[in-house]
Protein: Cysteine hydrolase
Amino acid sequence: MSPLAENAALVVIDMQNGINRPNLGRRNNPDAEDNIEALLAAWRATRRPIVHVRHISRSPESIFWPGQSGAEFQPRFAPLAHEHVVEKNVPDAFAASGLERWLRVRGIAQLVIAGVITNNSVEATARSAGNLGFEATVASDAAFTFDLRDSSGRLWPAEDVHALSLANLAMDYATVRTTDEIVGGVRAG
Structure:
């Protein structure tokens, strides 16, 4: 990972109330929220740009349907007035959201991505970032996912789903680093 530029953006994905619903199942990485807070603190202290991504579902049955508490940001991850908010309707934060243009207009080439769900919105966004030519880093311990049943009925533990998603990203799309490694780069940058 090259040193972080003064304008490297932190992209925090879907840290909304609905992600804490018990019906989503067992998750991994119980420290993810603390690590996301550490990233936010480092970005705010160095006045780097922060993008908060909020999923707004098109399905009335969704935990992210607009107008209900599940769609709102968790209080500890609420954007400050000057921080950018992007709303998306699909897992990829770049799809039809204006995010790419917002970054390009500001000359932002480096992104650090954190949030949920590792194998869904985090992976989709990191793949697009890499495909669009951004230098993307995913904070491995500032993301989490849930147990997942595959099409043959096998139940995969969240830890395995998370690890495989990060391995997929590390092949071609993003660098994968811990929060401590990233925050160290912020201080050194």
